[in-house]
Structures are given as structure tokens and as C-alpha cells.
């Protein structure tokens, strides 16, 4: 794609470079300098070609800063082209897609408007938290899924009598799709989250089928690890064998990883929507296909 330039933001430089290689497109990096007062200064490290521009930047923590940097890059890109695809592999605020409690701001909707105002004409995200989230965008938005790639990764592992498990009923469809690609069955636990303090508990009362089996807990994201810890503790009590975790976005806030391992998780596998040492699956190929 000779008339395409991929611009890599501070949060997704490596993924942007991989994407440019897959697309055989030009690549322009960027630099970020953060001033003592916290303001960031973004500089493009080259000149995009005339034609389509793809700006790649995830908005993982610091979410608000990375969001502002992404908007700044899109705005700068719009000086060179009016065909700008914003690829935001991990879209922060995607869980704030509706008013759960009276008075809450649906911040995702504000962000959707900001991205358009900055100059984005199309959007690509990876495994957005909910379909409802996509409705807030007034420009075409495409959600690509890493589930098949994750399932393919797990297929290469030697698991004993594997079963796919969703930690909550909201993720049942995701688990079903993963299990379909893997070629096994799935179950979904029932989880309850306190909307005020965020604490979760598993309310599934009984469960057979997991004793002695290797389990793959599938989720879209891991933030504090609370959902996975509760699910793992529950499943371990049911005498399962090993617990593996497959997720697209490994935020892994604070000591999330340590807590999950302590609860009995053997391995966490995520994608490079967020660069972490758990990121064994590359999403550049599926994004390239969507482009
Ligand atoms: C919730 O519905 C999501 O799919 C994740 O399960 C959740 O956001 C993970 O958060 P945490 O790791 O803090 O439990």
C-alpha cells in the first residue's frame, strides 16, 4: 500500500511498526516529552506521504494522557490527509458505555465525539468491551477480534481435557467463540459486581465437569485481576487441574499478576494491544486484514 502511512503513537510504537510492515506502508514514529507539570509534547518524526493515514495508539494507563496524545496525533495527521483511520487497539473508557447509576457520565460517548472532532474519519478497535460501546461513534467503527488468534495459541499447548470458562455470563458468547475455534466445550460462571465499590463475587452455586481438567478462563480484559482471582479460587475449590487465562487486553494494574498467580493461575496469555510480558499474541495481522 504505497499511498498509506502508519503513524505510531507512544503507547503502540511496536504494534504500529508491525502493522506498517504487514501493509507494506510507510511508517512515521513519534516522540513524547512530558514536561514537569505533566503536559506532554508530541512530535512526528517524519512527514506522512499524501494519501491515507493510519494512526495507531492504545489508550491504556495513563488513560487520559494517552487519550490526549492520540487526539493530538490524529489532529496533526489531519494536516496531511482527510482520510484518517484511528486504530485504538485497546480503547480505554469502553466499559463506561451506559449510565449504570443515575448521574453517571457516559464518557465513552464524549471520547467518540472528540476522536471525530480531532479528524478521525474511521476507527478500528480490538475486542471492544461491548457492542453497545460502538453505538456512540458517529464515524464508521470496526471491531476486530483476537479470540481466534488466542485460541490458536492455546491449541499449541498440551492441555489435559481442556474446558473454556467465562468468569461471568456477559462473557459467555466470547467463551463460546473461543471454544469453537479451539474445538472444545465452554461454561460460564455467574459473577456479581458491586457497582459502588467494584468488588466482585462468584455466585454460581454448583458446577460439575471441571474436576481434574485444565481450564482456560477467557475474558476481554484483566484490570485489577479481581474477576480472575475470584473465578480461579472458585474453580480450584471444585478440584480443577490447572487454570490458564486468555485475554485480549492485559492492563494488569498494580499487583494483579501476583494476585492471580497466588490464587492458582498457571499462565496468563494476552495480546500486544497492551505491551506486557504476557503479550504472546500479535494483533497486527488481524488489524491489517480489517484495513
Ligand atoms: C467485565 O465485565 C470485564 O469483562 C472484565 O471481566 C473486567 O473488567 C475485569 O476487571 P478486573 O480484572 O478488575 O476484575
TrEMBL record:
Organism: Candidatus Nitrosotenuis uzonensis
Entry GO terms, CC: cytoplasm; ribose phosphate diphosphokinase complex
Signal peptide boundaries: none
Entry annotated with the keyword Transmembrane helix: no
EC number: 2.7.6.1
Catalysed reaction equations from the record: D-ribose 5-phosphate + ATP = 5-phospho-alpha-D-ribose 1-diphosphate + AMP + H(+)
UniProtKB keywords: ATP-binding, Cytoplasm, Kinase, Magnesium, Metal-binding, Nucleotide biosynthesis, Nucleotide-binding, Transferase
Family: Belongs to the ribose-phosphate pyrophosphokinase family. Class III (archaeal) subfamily.
Domain Ribose-phosphate pyrophosphokinase N-terminal: residue ranges: 5-119
The name this protein goes by in its record: Ribose-phosphate pyrophosphokinase
SUPFAM superfamilies to which the protein is assigned, alphabetical: PRTase-like
GO biological process: 5-phosphoribose 1-diphosphate biosynthetic process; purine nucleotide biosynthetic process
GO terms for MF: ATP binding; kinase activity; magnesium ion binding; ribose phosphate diphosphokinase activity
Tagged with keyword Lipid biosynthesis: no
InterPro entries reported in the protein's UniProt record: Pribosyltran_N, PRTase-like, PRTase_dom, Rib-P_diPkinase
Amino acid at each position: 500500500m504505497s499511498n498509506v502511512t502508519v503513524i505510531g503513537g507512544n503507547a503502540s510504537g511496536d504494534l504500529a511498526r508491525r502493522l506498517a510492515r504487514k501493509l507494506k506502508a510507510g511508517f512515521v514514529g513519534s516522540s513524547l516529552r512530558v514536561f514537569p507539570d505533566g503536559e506532554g509534547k508530541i512530535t512526528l518524526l517524519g512527514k506522512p506521504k499524501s494519501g491515507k493515514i493510519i494512526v495507531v495508539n492504545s489508550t491504556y494507563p495513563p488513560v487520559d494522557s494517552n487519550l490526549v496524545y492520540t487526539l493530538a496525533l490524529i489532529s496533526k495527521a489531519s494536516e496531511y490527509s482527510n482520510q484518517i483511520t484511528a486504530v485504538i487497539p485497546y480503547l480505554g473508557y469502553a466499559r463506561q458505555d451506559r449510565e449504570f447509576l443515575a448521574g453517571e457520565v457516559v464518557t465513552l460517548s464524549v471520547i467518540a465525539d472528540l476522536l471525530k472532532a480531532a479528524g478521525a474519519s474511521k476507527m478500528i478497535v480490538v475486542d471492544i468491551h461491548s457492542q453497545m460501546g460502538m453505538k456512540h461513534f458517529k464515524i464508521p467503527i470496526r471491531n476486530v477480534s483476537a479470540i481466534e488468534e488466542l485460541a490458536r495459541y492455546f491449541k499449541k499447548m498440551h492441555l489435559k481435557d481442556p474446558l473454556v470458562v467465562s468468569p461471568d455470563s456477559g462473557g459467555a458468547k466470547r467463551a463460546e467463540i473461543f471454544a469453537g475455534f479451539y474445538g472444545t466445550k465452554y461454561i460460564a460462571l455467574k459473577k456479581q459486581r458491586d457497582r459502588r465499590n467494584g468488588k466482585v463475587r462468584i455466585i454460581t452455586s454448583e458446577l460439575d465437569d471441571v474436576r481434574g481438567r485444565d481450564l482456560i478462563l477467557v475474558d476481554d480484559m484483566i484490570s485489577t485481576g479481581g474477576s480472575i482471582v475470584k473465578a480461579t479460587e472458585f474453580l480450584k475449590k471444585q478440584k480443577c487441574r490447572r487454570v490458564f487465562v486468555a485475554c485480549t487486553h492485559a492492563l494488569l494494574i498494580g499487583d494483579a499478576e501476583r494476585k492471580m498467580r497466588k490464587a492458582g493461575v498457571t499462565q496468563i496469555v494476552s495480546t500486544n494491544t497492551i505491551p506486557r510480558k504476557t503479550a504472546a499474541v500479535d494483533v497486527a495481522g488481524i488489524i491489517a486484514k480489517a484495513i
